[in-house]
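Design review, sub-item: ligand-bound model
Attendees: FS, YL, KQ
YL presented the inputs for the pyridoxal-5'-phosphate complex:
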Amino acid sequence: MGYHPAQMLTHLRSTTLRSLQTSASAKYLRSNSLNTCRVLSTSLRNMSSSKLAPADRLKGTDKNVWVTFTELARTTGAVNLGQGFPDYPPPAHVYEALAEVASPENFMFNQYTRGFGHPRLVNAIAKMYGRFHNRELDPMKEVLVTAGAYESLFCCFQGYVNPGDEVIIIEPFFDCYKPMTMNAGGVPKFIPLRPSKDCEVTSADWKLDPEELASLFNDKTKLIVLNTPNNPLGKVYTRDELAMIADLCQRHDVICIADEVSVNGTGLSM
Ligand SMILES: Cc1ncc(COP(=O)(O)O)c(C=O)c1O
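KQ shared the predicted structure:
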């Protein structure tokens, strides 16, 4: 890492602080976290440099499209189309509700909550998604609330992929599927959507070859990631295409992660 020694110390302090804060077993250290940090960062400075390196499983994931393009847009003054930039206020009922729960008289709302999602929220989600799936969902067992789709994807990959398991990823794909597969020790298997005609191609003209897809399913296949509408193509899979994928999953006991982040707000189902 190309850090100046002073930067390195600051970096170590903040890294140490972050890892302490995220470790449940170290919660009690928070009360004295700055002192703890100083002690740990001094001892880390005395360790050999290879021990300070990130875990091997993160190799190759230090760069990503967001970091590269955000930096390029900043340095060149270009418009960054990769990230949203709302230049209008959110609806009044949203910020008013937020201000209300954060107000001093509502301090009792400012507490730890159920880790998988507040009961009122998971109940409302189960009711809403139950209608889409045409079945009753158990809010306490079948709904998990996360901070964005990234976290739910991370939980799926970490929770299901064993080292050596194969994960089918359809190209073009959202950038985190590959590093998340590899971080879990999985092996990504790619298959492209191809335009089915030469001119005036719309998002619907991008298709999977059913035989090519079927050839990727085997005993090692654990997951397939299905992103509909597809980012970046905008392709919405048809009912027939979804049925073809579902049939392969059922025949081979493969889990489908349906990243439907652009449908009904945000939603990921398996
Ligand atoms: C297909 C897809 N999956 C996941 C994400 C990440 O969503 P979030 O910002 O909620 O973590 C995005 C964001 O654009 C996306 O397009």
